[in-house]
Amino acid sequence: MIRRIACMCMENRVTAGVTGWRGVLGWICPAVLSSSLVMDFHSVVPEGVELKIITLGITATTKDQVESALAKLDESASRLALHGAQFICVEGTPLVSLRGFGFDKEIIQRVQKASGVPAITSLTAAVEACKLLNLKKLILASPLGNEANARTREFLEQSGVNVIHLKSLNNIQSRETEKLPRSAAYNFARQAYAEAPGADSIYLPSGSWCPPWVVDCLERDLGVTVLHSRQVTTWAGLRSLRIKEPVKGWGRLFEAV
Questions:
Q1: Which of 59, 101, 144, 216 is paired with 209 by a 20 to 30 Å CA distance?
Q2: CATH class of 125-228
Q3: How many CA atoms lie within 13 A of 149 on its CB side?
Q4: DSSP H stretches of helix in the chain
Q5: Residues 119-129 pLDDT 10s
Q6: How distant, in Å, are the alpha carbons of 2, 124, 195 from that of 216?
Q7: For residue 10, what are the CA distances in angstroms to 109, 241, 244?
């Protein structure tokens, strides 16, 4: 009788929309997030995965603002762990690439020390995905500023990823990217691919401009692997949480969970 009641309680919690019963991911994001990005996440990830988010208040990818955001990293990681995060993803390509190759490892160590849970950065996850999928000719198609994109390209190449083409929107202000239509990443990536048709993959950094369906459409239409910063960190997080339920609608990377 007690077992039956316990099962009924769990069923009621799930059907009532209580999340986090399978795992909790924490995101440290540089800029303010819109509700659509959270809805995108929950539209594709398995049921029962909760998302905790802290933003660092960046409005532009200038060195001063990025340094200010990095100063908040330890406290943010600690707060996420306090609220139940079991794996922490540090978003924000400009944060990770600011001090060059290897700085991602320093960020990961800081976050893990402050939180006591495993962590990864978006660029670290992107490199891991490229190597796992054996991607040889990558296009970097980015909405970020030219300086940040140059650092990102250098970081990827020093990590062993062959970037054959870089296409940049050169948006320094976060709000410029936020104003883009949700189809912008699709059209921009297609233009980049037309300029380097020998590529086998496309990487789209910046979490604020690329919904999951864009990744899926690009892969079907172009026949190449497409990676997005928020996609790769979610992939890494689900692997860490040992959640192996298939993720549909966010690219072929999730076949490697």
A1: 101
A2: alpha beta
A3: 21
A4: 2-15, 35-44, 63-70, 73-82, 93-97, 103-115, 122-132, 146-158, 174-178, 184-195, 212-222, 229-240
A5: 999 999 999 99
A6: 45, 22, 21
A7: 36, 20, 21
Domain ranges for the chain: 20-124+231-256, 125-228
Residues 27, 89: contact at Cβ < 8 Å? Answer: yes
Tokens 């991911």 locate to 25
Residue 13: what residue type?
R
For the domain made up of 20-124+231-256, the CATH class stated in words is alpha beta
Task: Give the largest Cα separation in the chain, rounded.
Answer: 66
Instruction: Say what angle helices 212-222 and 184-195 make with each other, to 10 degrees.
Output: 30
d(CA 27, CA 143): 20
Q: Are 250 and 212 in contact (CB under 8 A)?
A: yes
180 Cβ neighbours under 8 A, 6+ residues apart: 143, 209
Structure tokens at 89: 């993803």
For 50, how many CA atoms within 13 A lie in the half-sphere containing its CB? Answer: 16
Asked if the domains 20-124+231-256 and 125-228 are classified in one and the same CATH topology, the answer is: yes
The model's pTM: 0.90
